[in-house]
Structures are given as C-alpha cells and as structure tokens.
Amino acid sequence: MAAITAIRTYLREVIGLGADDNGTNRANAIIDEGLDSFDASQNFPKADIKVLCSSVRKPGGMIDDPNHGGVGDPRQIPNPGSRIPALCETKLIAAAYGAQLYEQIGRQPDALSLSATRLVAFRTHLETVESHDDLKSFPQIGKTFGIMKMLEQFPTFLEEKIGVTGIALAYVIRENAVRPGVLPAQDRNVPWSQPHLSMSEELITYASHEGPRYQTDNATVYRILQEILGDSIHMS
C-alpha cells in the first residue's frame, strides 16, 4: 500500500498529472495498468509506456453514465478514459528509463532519485543512445597499427560502442568487475555520482557483470577483439 501511495503522489506531483481529483484519477488509471511502484517502472520500456498511456486515454469498454439522474438503472456510455498530456508521457518515459538504468547499477529508484531535474538528464541520455551512430570500426592489427596502439585506443573505442544494455561496451573491460555494495550518493540535481561527469560514465563504472545482457555484451567485445587481432600472434 505504501508503494502505491508513493507512486501515486509521484505521478501527480512530479510527472504532472495534477494535484486535484482529476490528477488522482489519472494516476490511479496508470497504476491500474501495472505501474504501481517505482520498482514496477523498471518493467516498462519506452514502447510499453506509450501503450500504457494510450490504454489510459482510450481504455475501451462501457461504464455507467456518471450524469445518471438516479432513477432506474444507469445507462451505459463508452469509457471516456483519462487525459494524459504529452509532456506527462515524456516524463513517464524518462522516469521508467531512469529506473531501468538504476536497476543495472544497483541504485534504488524513488521520488528523489527520479526527481524532475534528474528526469531531464535521463531524457537527454535516452535521446543520445537512440541517435547513436555505431558505424565506426576499429583498424585491424598490422604493420601500420601495432598492438600497443591498439591497447591504447581500444578502451576509448568501446566508450563509443553501445551494447544491448544501452550502455557503452567499455563497462565490460573495466578494471573492477565487482561494483561496491553501496553506491556513492548522487551529485546534486543529476542522476550520477562524483567524480563522474555523465550518466554514461557512471554506467560504465557500476553496470552489473552478471545476467544474459552482460553475457551478450561480453561476447560482442570478444568478437570485436577477434576481428581486430585476426591471425596475428596476439590472438592467444
């Protein structure tokens, strides 16, 4: 019950559904669609948030006429749904995306970690990932490109390659595979902690080295190494 109360307040005040009764009704409609806690928002990628908002706006079915005069059985009318402004949908997408990133690094999503100012940063990060051009390739080891130059440039190259997790593949080769049990506190008004300068940097530092998504990213890095090293003596 506390989780539902917390997400309802968040939907009304931070997402902007409204502090009046209509805002409560809109929040309840979203909760009824399954987004009933901050943890639950981790299960709603962008496409599912769009479907959720569409379902709340046009739920279909019939309801009792709220303007029924009270004599006899109320007539049935099409369910008018609840109004979800486009800006609120955008904020919902950012909040759910932020919760998903937090899940990958072990940070708890809540009203503070998903504050309005932090949602702006998540929206920017999501737009960056979605518009990322991943066509750049890495040169193969040879006479003009030796192993030392490769080792020097490879980490930077992986910082520009996005994996299935939506995180730069540089997290796969970081020095400390195990992240700390408790993450550092977030810097003011941004989703990441010091000394990081972006969400991408924090993800590289703390993203989990467990689970099927990591295994896929790890395999991708191995494949890239195979392509770079070819049949050189450095393959082993």
User: How much helix is in the residues?
Assistant: 40-55%
What's the assembly state of these chains? Answer: single chain
Compute the average pLDDT.
Answer: 92
Q: Count structural domains.
A: 2
Counting helices, strands and paired strands, the structural category is: mainly alpha
Shape: elongated
Total of helices: 8
Give unreliable regions as ranges: none
**Rg (C-alpha, Å):** 23 Å
Total strand segments: 2
Strand content: under 5%
Spatial strand sequence of the major β-sheet: 1-2
Give the helices and strands as they follow along the chain.
Answer: HHHEEHHHHH
Distance between the termini: 56 Å
- Major beta sheet summary: 2 strands, antiparallel
Question: How are the secondary structure elements laid out?
Answer:
Elements: H1 2-13, H2 21-32, H3 46-57, E1 62-64, E2 76-78, H4 86-105, H5 116-130, H6 147-158, H7 199-206, H8 211-229
Antiparallel strand pairs: 1-2
Helix pairs in contact: 1-2, 3-4, 4-5
Structure write-up:
The chain is an all-alpha fold and 236 residues long. The chain has two domains: 129 residues, no CATH class; 83 residues, no CATH class. 47% of the residues lie in helices and 3% in strands. The protein has eight helices and two strands. Strands 1-2 form a two-stranded antiparallel ribbon. Helix 3 packs antiparallel against helix 4 and helix 4 crosses helix 5. The model has no long low-confidence stretch (mean pLDDT 92).
